[in-house]
Prior knowledge:
The protein has 181 residues and is of the alpha/beta class. The protein folds into two domains: 2-92, 3-Layer(aba) Sandwich (Rossmann fold), CATH 3.40.50; 97-179, ATP-grasp fold, A domain (Dna Ligase, domain 1). Helix content is 41%, strand content 15%. The chain is built from eight helices and eight strands, in the order H-E-E-H-E-H-H-E-H-H-E-H-E-E-H-E. The strands form three sheets. It has a four-stranded antiparallel sheet, with helices on both faces. The chain has a two-stranded parallel sheet with strand order 1-2. It has a two-stranded parallel ribbon with strand order 3-4. Helix 3 (64-72) runs antiparallel to helix 5 (89-96) and helix 5 (89-96) crosses helix 6 (98-107). It is elongated.
Amino acid sequence: MEYFKKEFYGSGKVITADCSSLAPALYTSDKSYIVPPITDSGYLAKIMDICARENIAAILSLIDPELLFLAENKSSFDDMGVRIIVSGYSAVDTCHDKIKMHGFLDRHGFDNIKIYDDISRFFNANKDGIISFPVFIKERFGSASSGALKIKSMESLKAAFNEVLLGLLCIKLTLFLFFDK
Length: 181
């Protein structure tokens, strides 16, 4: 925030929005708003209202899940003259989905880690000696370190997988297993 405030000094303001009153950016910007979570049906209307009220020229989000939402709704903001600083929807969608990103990297010849997005395939690979513990698991659509765990045994993997299935570790997200080559 400090960088943007310095760059815009005298020619614009930095306005922030977050669903949590504990977000540090709210307290370093020129003006801030508490908004509903991105999953709330009123989120888009609230952001658009702030844009109109504050005469916002551009939106830049630093939150991964919000990038997909902004890319998806880019034309609505374009219609009101607000520039969304985000890659195209397809690129953001690929980066947001670890399985799609893995496929993209493979198709384009990048060295990549081995993944298992199906626990039965992992069990078979482990039984056949193809993969061993420890392993690292992460939510398919998780952001930052959300849902990230180092797993040292089959029992721990089964417990983590059951928690995911029950929704205790994540909601509507697929367990995603990462492994070294």
